Amino acid sequence: MSNTNEKALCTTILKVEFFSHTSQKSRSERWREWYSKLKFAFGDALPMIANQIGQQCDPKLHWWGLQWNPVLFDFDSMSAEEEKKCWLYFQTAQYALMDVLSSNFATHEKQIIADHDPLVLTEKLIRQYSEMWDSKLLSFPDKA
């Protein structure tokens, strides 16, 4: 990533219209439409990992089991500094998603949003999986 891209990344906000909680359409139909718009906004703002938005994380796997473009992210050949930049990019994406989801659903889905706060969720996953991570994963973003 160039310095220009890093600077743009630090100020990226996902630009997606507000989810309508009052439309006459069914909630599932409104969700599908809004989620489609969210995917496009995510792809526009964070194209290097846009394919991850529809994937389900698996905390038992390295890098959460998410698929990374092998051309853009050759982790086996990356320096520690390059991997750190990828982690920053990933974290920025996660916080951008949380910001959009919170601003759209915090008043209607308080507990779900609270349970998925990045700090709360990270602590929960560390408690639940750290022993397994230490024994099975050769590397992890918080490990040397």
What does this molecule look like?
Helix content is 54%, strand content 0%. The protein is mainly alpha-helical and 144 residues long. The chain has a domain at 48-144. The radius of gyration is 17 Å and the shape is globular. The two termini are 22 Å apart.
Strand content is under 5%
Distance between the termini: 22 Å
* Number of DSSP-assigned strands: 0
Q: Structural class, from helix and strand content?
A: mainly alpha
Biggest sheet: strands, sense, closure? Answer: none
Shape: globular
What does the average pLDDT come to?
A: 81
Radius of gyration: 17 Å
Give a concise summary.
The protein has 144 residues and is an all-alpha fold.
Any descriptors?
single chain, 144 residues, mainly alpha
List the helices and strands and how they pair.
Blueprint: H1 3-10, H2 27-45, H3 80-105, H4 110-115, H5 118-136
